[in-house]
Amino acid sequence: MQSSDQKPNQGDSRRDFLKKSSIITAIALTPTVAVKAAENQADERFAELFEKIPLHLTVNNKAYQTAVEPRVTLLDYLREELHLTGTKKGCDHGQCGACTVHIDGERVNSCLSLAVMNEGKKITTIEGLADGEELHPMQAAFIKHDGFQCGYCTPGQIMSAVACVNEGHTNSRAEISEYMSGNICRCGAYPNIVDAIVEVSKGGTKV
Amino acid sequence: MINFQYLRTLTSKSALSLISKDKNAKFLAGGTNLIDLMKRGVTAPEKLIDINHVPLKQIEAIGDKIMIGALASNTAVAEHALVKDKLPLLAMALNAGASAQLRNVATVGGNMMQRTRCGYFYDTEMPCNKRQPGTGCGAIGGFNRMHAIFGTSDQCIAVHPSDMCIALVALDATVVLSSTKGERKVLFKDFHRLAGDTPQLDNNLKPDEMIVRLEIPTNNLHKNSYYLKVRDRASYAFALVSVGAALELSENKIKDVRLAMGGVAHKPWRLTAAENFLKGREATVENFEQAAKLAMIDAKGYGENDFKLQMAPNSIVEALTIAKSKA
Fold first, then answer.
1. Which of B9, B51, B101 should one mutate to test binding to chain A, selecting the residue with the greatest count of A CBs within 10 A?
2. Sign of CA dihedral B103, B106, B112, B116
3. N or C: which terminal CB in chain B sees fewer CB atoms within 10 Å?
4. Tell me, what's the ipTM?
5. Which CATH superfamily groups domain B224-325?
6. Residue A34 sits in which domain range?
7. Is B4 in contact with B47 (CB distance < 8 Å)?
């Protein structure tokens, strides 16, 4: 196991390093336990190369200081680390809008944003909309107009709807539909969702 | 997603220096296409250099040109007063693309760099010369309803997916690229490539270069312009066929005209022959139809996409007719 004890050369990419070290472990005629130990050592070094990145961000007015692997999406960070499971994972590829959150006030698909890209940003999720027990006007309007059936897309629809009103893209039902097209509802509650948005945009309430 | 090293940089200089040292690194801007491709295993860069904090977001008029920084978001460009006023074709094309959520994050440079949505390119179990040169093209003889009818090769019939780029090629934009060696300018029409024998290359950006800005000349084509996008649903879908059309009219006479199509080729497809025919002629449906015919001379269907051979000329006539009718 001499070779796998060496530090990877600086010029080596991680895959070159992994290829080398795994070939070495594969051909080594050593007891299983020793091979296992060597692999663990390699894993540790692997982790060193790809350490967690420090991250500061504010979610629903609460500041967080943490460290995450670069590949963790904002969606997974919110759901798995912060246990804010209101934001839903639908397609996980930016096609359905179920994961919509606000980053510095703008709606974004959190599944296509890496958590580390959001250093210093202010995130608002569906959990951050209500004021204590008092529902946000958009939440109340969705209930009033029956803007959902199964409810899975609803958090994303509501976050997108709030942004749509803030952006001023509510001048007609057609414009609302166009600017809500990034949120898919497989139950087909679209007309009722548009009703809810029309009401809130006309109500002139600060949303 | 296979893990990677993540670096954040604040200046163009350091971004260029980092990319010049590492051929396995990629720039990360909005990430809306790159992260998706990484999740699907289509690409797996070893290092991402986050350039979102590099100050390249300006949108401004300098002389008779409008300059747009490569990191301006699609929303920022589409909603900017200068763009709405002077380059409405660009604003329309941007708003026809993706969704509000994606446009908020996606950048101008990233939009230019997005990869084809060909199903064979995305499915790592399938042959694809673009993803893995030498494995063949699944789309030729396969499911090719979305595919190209112009400028194809026997290696690849994928289409370029952007709407924004159709407007930019019509508007004679120039792309400014930067590397540690300095800047160079490329005409937008020469930025993207045809598939030829190298379908893995979408464009002529060199591995150590970064897109820094667009320079778009202002013109007199802003009044009568229209971006027509034909797709399978009313919104939030890639184009089957799209047409960017802009006319400068004097009475009913065409002084100048720009025409480009999307969803039909491996690069934004400028319709030069049709433009040349229309210049100096009357803006009539008959002339629009004649121009559309000229535009289709080299078109070729691959089976499932044969309908584009009719949809494309119809769309050219429709886009020109709507552009003309604008007061």
1. B101
2. negative
3. C
4. 0.96
5. CO dehydrogenase flavoprotein, C-terminal domain (3.30.390.50)
6. 2-49
7. yes
